[in-house]
Structure formats: structure tokens, C-alpha cells
Design goal:
With about 270 residues, the protein is an alpha/beta fold. It has helices spanning about 20-30, 40-55, 75-85, 110-135, 160-175, 195-210, 215-225, 235-245; strands at about 10-15, 35-40, 65-70, 90-95, 140-145, 185-190, 255-260. The mean pLDDT is about 95.
Length: about 270
């Protein structure tokens, strides 16, 4: 299927590895120009090289370009560096590293503010900086990578549960405002258990809390997923690319859960 977004320009955050990289790669393969941002310069440069290979393989006469900014997108300085390089975007994929697991009794105000700043306020700042331009041009796709914990809270991820739920409520209102009639969609993409460094860190925390070894916790989590496996960044990226497509223009304000069937609810 041609997703109809070749030649569009995307900002993909947290794109040096994992789910962010999977989204960037899927978009490049659709002919989308991408600006990737992450804090680690070395990992980001390696990701850019891989994306350039994917861009070169695109079948169109005009190959998509790949740009990179090594910066902390959760800071005003990091966002300024991104918009200094590229002002307008047709697609924005927000993504920031999730806050650490733990017990809420151990989190002070600073920990909560940091979580809200990264996983709620930063996406809102990126939306504010880009959504009006999208509306003026008549096309825009914003995809926020959040978490399955928005649907089914995870006890040791209280910081994430709270901050990401706040973003979800904000997006629900904005997506249904006037921008919906101007060709701009906002959706949240909720990953369940995907084989990433983030999952390994969460599993390490769970193992420590339960007193079990890591491999036991890892295999137990896998067995509890109806698909009997963890997801891959590549298939996550494919879902993201579809949400950015022209075909998904009637889909907005939604929480798209990709978890191999782990969520037990009907709705």
C-alpha cells in the first residue's frame, strides 16, 4: 500500500534506537524526509547512517533526506536546536524516555516534575510549535508514543502512569477541536511489551522487586502475552507509519494499543 506521504517531512524524537528508530525507519521507507533527535550523539549518528541506507533504497527519483540533532528534546534548548535546523514539519512523532520504575513512596516532587516535563509537557510543547503550521497547510499527523500503562496501569511505573495519562487527556480534547477539520490528526500509540532496552530495564526492576532472576521474569512476561512473544520495533514503526498516512485521515483522538493481546478488557 502506498501511504501517500512520500515527500513529507517528519520529526521523530528518541530515534537513535528502539521504538523511535523503528518509526523513523518506517517513515523513511515510505519516502518521508526525517529529522531524528536523541541525546546520545554517537548512537544517533549510527542510526542516521542506517536510515540513509534505507533512504537510498527508496524507489522514487527524489530520495528522502535524513537529518539529525543530538539534543535533549525535553529542554527548551533542545527544542530550539531542532527548529533552528527545520522549522516546519508535516509529521511529528513525540517520544521521550520513560521515567524509572520504583515505589511512589520514594519519589519526591522533583521526580514527579521531571516525569511530567518529559512525558506530558514536552509533547505538548512540540504540538504547540507545529500544529498551526500543519493546519495552515491542510495536512498534519502527530503521533505520541506513550505506553500501554495508559490503559492498564503498571504498579512499578507510577511516574509513567500519571504523566502519560495527563498527555492522553490533553490530546483527547485538542484532537477534537477545529484542527480536525483542517487535515490534522493527533493519536497516541501505546506500546505493550516490545523487545527494547526500556523493557529490559523494567524487567530488571521487576526482578529485583520480586527477588527472581532476570531470565525467569523475562520468560514469564512473554508467556503471559497471548501472542507468546514480544513485539519488534519494526512492526511498531509500521503501525506508526500507517497512522501518519493519508488513509488514516479519519482516525484522530485515539489510543492505539499494540500489545500482542495482553490487555484483557473488551474496550
Amino acid at each position: 500500500m502506498d501511504l501517500g506521504i512520500a515527500g513529507k517531512t517528519a520529526l521523530v524524537c528518541g530515534a537513535s534506537k528502539g521504538l523511535g528508530y523503528g518509526c523513523a525507519e518506517a517513515l523513511v521507507r515510505e519516502g518521508v524526509n526525517v529529522l531524528i533527535v536523541a541525546r546520545g550523539a554517537e548512537a544517533l549518528a549510527e542510526a542516521a547512517k542506517r536510515l540513509e541506507v534505507a533512504a537510498a533504497a527508496h524507489g522514487s527519483a527524489v530520495k528522502p533526506w535524513v537529518k539529525q540533532v543530538a539534543a535533549d528534546i525535553t529542554t527548551a534548548e533542545g527544542r530550539a536546536a531542532v527548529f533552528a535546523l527545520q522549522k516546519d514539519f508535516d509529521i511529528v512523532v513525540t517520544n521521550a524516555g520513560g521515567p524509572p520504575p520504583g515505589d511512589f513512596r520514594d519519589w519526591d516532587r522533583e521526580a514527579w516534575i521531571k516525569a511530567v516535563d518529559a512525558n506530558m509537557l514536552t509533547p505538548i510543547e512540540l504540538i504547540k510549535a507545529t500544529v498551526d503550521g500543519m493546519a495552515a497547510r491542510g495536512f498534519g499527523r502527530i503521533v505520541n508514543i506513550t505506553s500501554s500503562s495508559v490503559k492498564a496501569p503498571i504498579d512499578i511505573l507510577g511516574l509513567s502512569n500519571g504523566a502519560r495519562s495527563g498527555l492522553t487527556g490533553f490530546v483527547a480534547g485538542l484532537a477534537r477541536s477545529g484542527i480536525a477539520a483542517q487535515g490534522v490528526t493527533l493519536n497516541n500509540l501505546l506500546p505493550g511489551s516490545f523487545d527494547t532496552d526500556r523493557l529490559k530495564g523494567t524487567m530488571a526492576g521487576a526482578a529485583k522487586k520480586s527477588g527472581q532472576d532476570f531470565d525467569t521474569v523475562w520468560e514469564s512476561r512473554k508467556k503471559n502475552i497471548p501472542a507468546k512473544r514480544f513485539g519488534t520495533p519494526e512492526e511498531f514503526g509500521a503501525i506508526c507509519a500507517f497512522l501518519c498516512s493519508v488513509q488514516a485521515g479519519y482516525l484522530t483522538g485515539q489510543n492505539v494499543l499494540a500489545d500482542g493481546g495482553a490487555y484483557p478488557g473488551t474496550y
